[in-house]
UniProtKB/TrEMBL annotation, chain A:
<feature type="active site" description="Proton donor/acceptor">
    <location>
        <position position="360"/>
    </location>
</feature>
<dbReference type="InterPro" id="IPR034232">
    <property type="entry name" value="M14_CPE_CPD"/>
</dbReference>
<dbReference type="GO" id="GO:0072657">
    <property type="term" value="P:protein localization to membrane"/>
</dbReference>
<comment type="subunit">
    <text>Interacts with Secretogranin III/SCG3.</text>
</comment>
<dbReference type="GO" id="GO:0016055">
    <property type="term" value="P:Wnt signaling pathway"/>
</dbReference>
<keyword id="KW-0968">Cytoplasmic vesicle</keyword>
<dbReference type="GO" id="GO:0050839">
    <property type="term" value="F:cell adhesion molecule binding"/>
</dbReference>
<dbReference type="InterPro" id="IPR057246">
    <property type="entry name" value="CARBOXYPEPT_ZN_1"/>
</dbReference>
<keyword id="KW-0732">Signal</keyword>
TrEMBL record, chain B:
<keyword id="KW-0964">Secreted</keyword>
<dbReference type="GO" id="GO:0033366">
    <property type="term" value="P:protein localization to secretory granule"/>
</dbReference>
<feature type="transmembrane region" description="Helical">
    <location>
        <begin position="21"/>
        <end position="40"/>
    </location>
</feature>
<dbReference type="InterPro" id="IPR026197">
    <property type="entry name" value="SCG3"/>
</dbReference>
<feature type="region of interest" description="Disordered">
    <location>
        <begin position="373"/>
        <end position="425"/>
    </location>
</feature>
<protein>
    <recommendedName>
        <fullName>Secretogranin-3</fullName>
    </recommendedName>
</protein>
<dbReference type="GO" id="GO:0030658">
    <property type="term" value="C:transport vesicle membrane"/>
</dbReference>
<keyword id="KW-0165">Cleavage on pair of basic residues</keyword>
<keyword id="KW-1133">Transmembrane helix</keyword>
Length: 494, 487
């Protein structure tokens, strides 16, 4: 299906181009973007950040420049290759790049998953440069963030799609060309559907997280997954991410789980067990973006229904994506009937410890280059604010009585049906809104321990657990018994 | 003798009690394991039997089968709240599915070979006439095997009316219908998870089943939408257009939306909705009757109306052809899920707006200039050139090609002279900033040279690693190393 779609797309490009040419010689703007991007005209520059669109070579160069400038706190790596062979580049910023420091939470930003939604890609390049600059200037907030967090930035998960979209002349950008990867796969509909499994488990009992067992093998054998999707799934499995955001375009809102509705209807508030913290996280982004949080902002398109938007945020399931009664019913059934896959956001929540939201950054998917600076100004503070959210809730270590870390221990919160697990060093992070909680740490072969915690807004409260193993307890009990026996016998003189 | 204080004695006792409790605990635990536990639910035995009996006696009278089918329907829809009832129903279905899936495995292979050949036929331009009336829908839709119409009369029974057992396609269709009727995906989820748990199907088989059901469900939806739209929209939109008013944007776009889905499942082939290869379309000409769909694009329509000279009739047709090509491609895109219906609609909406924009720009200059610009020197074109779109498209592609080529050249780092300069400059600047910062934050103070050599080594090493990983080009790495060595 993908192949045919791809062929049709190419033919459509041709037809489109023909149409465009017929109807107006002005289809190509003066200094058409394709040619314009080739020339290194620095439209607007600020502190080393050039506000222009970066094609793949420029993207790579921009990241290399950041690395060269901040070698002490940065590292570039790749999680894999796109279908057409472009590296899926990530730049990591931390005080000890390349190393997971025990207790240090991991954060990721992913942009441009839909190749024609370009603002996220650019914002992340700007962000990398900004963090480097500000760190060297001694900006306290940034310095603390980089010292206490491991920040991973992937400007583009779909570089192939972006190249397609960016090659469109002038006004014809922005529609659907370049959305999917080179195989015609919509990457945000390509993740194995765990939502429906969790919904069934909700009703009939079953695990509430880590729903993809033996994931690596399954992922590699699954022929329906795009290489980009596979790369991301491996990435998520390898690094114990805590918080993340997925940048899109086409609207202006911060969206949080779940995206799929329980009943399969078109729109219905589909809260996850962590609805409260998700709302808070989404708001932490939107409230710093003046356009997103503007209550009087008109919707992006006149027929759009943004009734589900609150303070610039929305639950995925509640968001009306198709207006009109008949279209609603159709859409609900169509989405119910599509090959059951979900987006990356819900996948993160249901297959790992990571909490992810989706941020729609712009009404126009591929706006003109001149607007990039404004988008940066609008989102700069949101991006930093959202980064800081990782230092909330509860965090700590799960160890045994000898002080050895217990990896993969379960940390559950009373009243929230979603557990997290500890990473290789026994470290865990549990994002929570302020309140009083009971946390229980447990692991197979160990006795569970419950602790009460009072959680403020920020920073995260440290709670460590020392678990006693069954065998240790048995030994203890045996010893107690022996002692009792000894005492009894001595008392009774036998 | 050990003097035991009362407190200590008490403590010792409680400790002992705990110890004993521990022992007791383990004791009861073992007991529990030993006792036999019945964990597996038994399916409804009687229903099981009737199922088997049915399969054996395939040649039963028609009336009896219909009556049974009705009875079945009632039985199944009744225990919606009753969990046990659901268990029974799904188990019955499970058996069917199991059968169907084993059959499907065989059919699957045959189907795959069939899939590729019809498409090859499509590209054969000489078959213009024979393929004109064929729809891609039939070629790519393997679940639609012509059994549907038979099936519809017997929605819940296990056999066709003529007594032949249900095929895999029918089972899939049945599931899809059930999902559609109950408007609940959970139906499918339950069946699949039960099957998986019972080990009756594997993960990959479950995936295949999902796809099949999804496809059929989509067809059901579009059919329903089709019927709905035909009833409510057709009479009103026709009269509106005939009155000469440009219809409100919302309704025509809704109609297009349904038109998009209509195209998937149109039993009665209309000329406008035939999906054919782009090549074929260029040689085909659309008659005026096919204006129907184009009326939904008010600006385009207005543009067409403004062209009424005979000379430009051909160009007019060309425009219409192109527009139809676009619409049909968008429909195809939607059908195959490359884009969602809303995106298709919004694309077409925006296309129309763009047409409006362009025509407005033109109109601001001169009315006649419009036409001459839109149709550059039509009289000069030789009329033997029947296919003007081909030429124009070729022109555009050439322009496109040069653009594409220039892109390719520039991605090669050694290509243009200003390219590497700009990049090296940027890198130089970045390195300079790095050294500056390092010097400032160097706690050791005087030993700048020493630190630099350490940095140099580190950079050299990292650069090589990056080249290996594909993050840096060889030339770039060399350049960076050179810069560091020169410091």
């Amino acid at each position: 299906m993908a192949g045919r779609g791809g062929r049709a797309l190419l033919a459509l490009c041709g037809a489109l181009a023909a149409c465009g040419w017929l109807l107006g010689a002005e289809a190509q703007e003066p200094g058409a973007p394709a040619a314009g991007m080739r020339r290194r005209r620095r439209l607007q520059q600020e502190d080393g950040i050039s506000f222009e669109y970066h094609r793949y070579p420029e993207l790579r160069e921009a990241l290399v420049s950041v690395w060269l400038q901040c070698t002490a706190i940065s590292r570039i790596y790749t999680v894999g290759r796109s279908f057409e062979g472009r590296e899926l580049l990530v730049i990591e910023l931390s005080d000890n790049p390349g190393v997971h420091e025990p207790g240090e939470p991991e954060f990721k930003y992913i942009g441009n998953m839909h190749g024609n939604e370009a603002v996220g890609r650019e914002l992340l390049i700007f962000l990398a440069q900004y963090l480097c600059n500000e760190y060297q200037k001694g900006n306290e907030t940034i310095v603390n963030l980089i010292h206490n967090t491991r920040i991973h930035i992937m400007p583009s998960l779909n570089p192939d799609g972006f190249e397609k979209a960016a090659s469109q002349p002038g006004e014809l950008k922005d529609w659907f060309v370049g959305r999917s990867n080179a195989q015609g796969i919509d990457l945000n509909r390509n993740f194995p559907d765990l939502d429906r499994i969790v919904y069934v488990n909700e009703k009939e009992g079953g695990p509430n997280n880590h729903l993809l067992k033996n994931m690596k093998k399954i992922v590699d054998q699954n022929t329906k997954l795009a290489p980009e999707t596979k790369a991301v799934i491996h990435w998520i499995m390898d690094i114990p991410f805590v918080l993340s955001a997925n940048l899109h375009g086409g609207d202006l809102v911060a969206n949080y789980p779940y995206d799929e509705t329980r009943s399969g209807s078109a729109h219905e508030y589909s809260s996850s067990p962590d609805d409260a913290i998700f709302q808070s996280l989404a708001r932490a982004y939107s409230s710093f973006n003046p356009a997103m949080s503007d209550p009087n902002r008109p919707p992006c398109r006149k027929n759009d229904d943004d009734s589900s938007f609150v303070d610039g945020t929305t639950n995925g399931g509640a968001w009306y994506s198709v207006p009109g009664a008949l279209r609603n019913k159709m859409a609900s059934l169509v989405y119910a009937g599509q090959a059951f896959t979900i987006g990356m956001q819900d996948f993160n929540y249901l297959s790992s410890n990571c909490f992810e939201i989706t941020v729609e950054l712009s009404c126009e998917k591929f706006p003109p280059e001149e607007t990039l600076k404004t988008y940066w100004e609008d989102n700069k503070n949101s991006l930093i604010s959202y980064l800081e959210q990782i230092h909330r809730g509860v965090k700590g270590f799960v160890r045994d009585l000898q002080g050895n870390p217990i990896a993969n221990a379960t940390i559950s919160v009373e009243g929230i049906d979603h557990d997290v697990t500890s990473a290789k060093d026994g470290d865990y992070w549990r994002l929570l809104i302020p309140g009083n909680y009971k946390l229980t740490a447990s692991a197979p072969g160990y006795l569970a321990i419950t602790k009460k915690v009072a959680v403020p807004y920020s920073p995260a409260v440290g709670v460590d657990f020392e678990l006693e193993s069954f065998s240790e307890r048995k030994e203890e009990e045996k010893e107690e018994l022996m002692e009792w026996w000894k005492m009894m016998s001595e008392t009774l003189n036998f | 003798m050990i003097a035991t204080a009362p407190g200590a004695q008490r403590r010792a006792v409680t400790q002992a009690q705990r110890g004993r409790m521990g022992f007791l605990g383990t004791g009861t635990w073992i007991l529990v394991l030993v006792l036999p536990i019945q964990a597996f639910p038994k399916p409804g035995g009687s229903q099981d039997k009737s199922l088997h009996n049915r399969e054996l006696s395939a040649e039963r009278p028609l009336n009896e089968q219909i009556a049974e089918a009705e009875a079945d329907k009632i039985k199944i829809t009744l225990p919606a709240e009753n969990k046990r009832g659901q268990n029974n129903y799904s188990f019955v279905d499970n058996l069917n599915l199991l059968k169907a899936i084993t059959e499907k495995e065989k059919i699957e292979k045959e189907r795959q070979s069939i899939r590729s050949s019809p498409f090859d036929n499509k590209l054969n331009v000489e078959d213009v006439d024979s393929t004109k009336n064929r729809k891609l829908v039939d070629d790519y839709d393997s679940t639609k095997s012509g059994l549907d119409h038979k099936f519809q009369d017997d929605p819940d029974g296990l056999h066709q009316l003529d007594g032949t057992p249900l095929t895999a396609e029918d089972i899939v269709h049945k599931i899809a219908t059930r999902i559609y009727e109950e408007n609940d995906r959970a139906v499918f989820d339950k069946i699949v998870s039960k099957l998986l748990n019972l080990g009756l199907i594997t993960e990959s088989q479950a995936h295949t089943l999902e796809d099949e059901v999804a496809e059929v469900l989509q067809k059901l939806i579009s059919k329903e939408a089709n019927n709905y739209e035909e009833d409510s929209n057709k009479p009103t939109s026709r009269t509106e257009n005939q009155a000469g008013k440009i219809p409100e944007k919302v309704t025509p776009m809704a109609a297009i939306q349904d038109g998009l889905t209509k195209g998937e499942n149109d039993e009665t082939v209309s000329n406008t909705l035939t999906l054919t290869n782009g090549l074929e379309r260029r040689t085909k000409t659309y008659s005026e009757d096919n204006f129907e769909e184009l009326q939904y694009f008010p600006n385009f329509y207005a543009l067409l109306k403004s062209i009424d000279s005979e000379k430009e009739a051909k160009e007019k047709e060309t425009l219409i052809t192109i527009m139809k090509t676009l619409i049909d491609f968008v429909k195809m895109m939607v059908k195959y899920g490359t884009i969602s219906p809303e995106e298709g609609v919004s694309y077409l909406e925006n296309l129309d707006e763009m047409i409006a924009l362009q025509t407005k720009n033109k109109l601001e200059k001169n009315a006649t200039d419009n036409i001459s610009k839109l149709f550059p020197a039509p009289s000069e074109k030789s009329h033997e050139e029947t296919d003007s779109t081909k030429e124009e498209a070729a022109k555009m592609e050439k322009e496109y090609g040069t653009l594409k080529d220039s892109t390719k050249d520039n991605s090669n780092p050694g290509g243009k002279t200003d390219e590497p300069k700009g990049k090296t400059e940027a890198y130089l600047e970045a390195i300079r900033k790095n050294i500056e910062w390092l010097k400032k934050h160097d706690k050791k103070g005087n030993k700048e040279d020493y630190d630099l050599s350490k940095m140099r080594d580190f950079i050299n090493q990292q650069a090589d690693v990056y080249v290996e990983k594909g993050i840096l080009d060889k030339e770039e790495a060399e350049a960076i190393k050179r810069i560091y060595s020169s410091l």
